[in-house]
Write a structure and sequence with these properties.
Layout (H helix, E strand, L loop, with lengths): L3 H19 L4 H28 L6 H33 L27 H5 L2 H7 L1 H5 L4 H6 L4 H91 L2
Helix pairs in contact: 1-8, 2-3, 2-8, 3-8, 5-8
């Protein structure tokens, strides 16, 4: 008759030895998994920042700053989810379970830079191209029909030309100011997004290092507890097997 008790003991000892073989140090695997989580979160954030950068024109400074902040918060949340999955997955590969770590807080708010100032009228007037367009009506006034009939450019010709020149000057100044404001806002938004990306990189680097240390300690403790439990059960089964094997 087969000795079912002895067979069960041997099978259990085999399972326990297999468990012990899994309970190897996990710091390196955990570090690699968390680094991959950081790289993935940063890559997605870079794509999101690029989307915001492509749509800078036409949006006020406050909207650009809010969009950059939203990308930072979303990237930290995505990294947190991947970090938890990396920690639990590394533990599961070794046959141990870890409790869910506490939720990570959102990134600390950064001091928002002052929005770019509006272009002043004198700055637009300092552009020589503005005056070239404005004086064009005065330059063509002597060539007008009224001046040709009278032989000289009198008030009837000059006054409308001056009025036209003033209107052109106002329109050109407004157009140049609007173009300069758009260019300044674009540069400001580009700089803000670059600073947000650098700040996010540093924040995720800090969080990854902290999670590597904290999760590594939790994982080491879980592995030690599991090794102790497996070792204790093996020690209990060894005398039983010897007793069964004795003729």
């Amino acid at each position: 008759m087969p000795d079912r008790f002895a067979d069960a003991v041997r099978a259990r000892r085999h399972e326990l030895r297999a468990d012990l073989a899994l309970l190897t140090p996990a710091r390196a695997d955990l570090r690699d998994a968390l680094a991959a989580a950081r790289a993935t979160a940063l890559a997605q954030a870079a794509a999101d920042f690029a989307d915001v950068r492509r749509t800078l024109d036409g949006h006020p400074a406050g909207a650009v700053a809010a969009a950059a902040r939203a990308v930072e918060v979303a990237a930290c949340a995505a990294w947190s989810e991947r970090a938890v999955a990396a920690e639990r997955g590394t533990a599961a590969d070794r046959g141990v379970a870890l409790p869910a770590p506490p939720d990570d807080p959102p990134p600390p708010p950064a001091a928002e830079p002052s929005p770019p100032r509006r272009t002043r009228v004198v700055e637009a007037l300092a552009d020589a191209g503005t005056w070239r367009l404005a004086v064009l009506p005065l330059a063509v006034a002597p060539l007008s029909g009224l001046a040709g009939l009278s032989g000289f450019a009198g008030p009837s010709v000059l006054l409308p030309a001056v009025g036209t020149a003033v209107l052109v000057l106002v329109a050109v100044v407004r157009s140049r100011r609007a173009a300069a404001d758009r260019a300044r806002l674009h540069r400001w938004g580009t700089d803000l997004l670059a600073a947000a990306h650098a700040r996010l990189d540093a924040e995720l680097t800090r969080r990854t290092a902290a999670r590597t240390a904290g999760a590594g300690a939790r994982l080491d403790a879980a592995l030690a507890r599991r090794r102790a439990a497996v070792g204790a059960e093996l020690a209990l089964l060894t005398p039983a097997r010897e007793a069964v094997d004795v003729p």
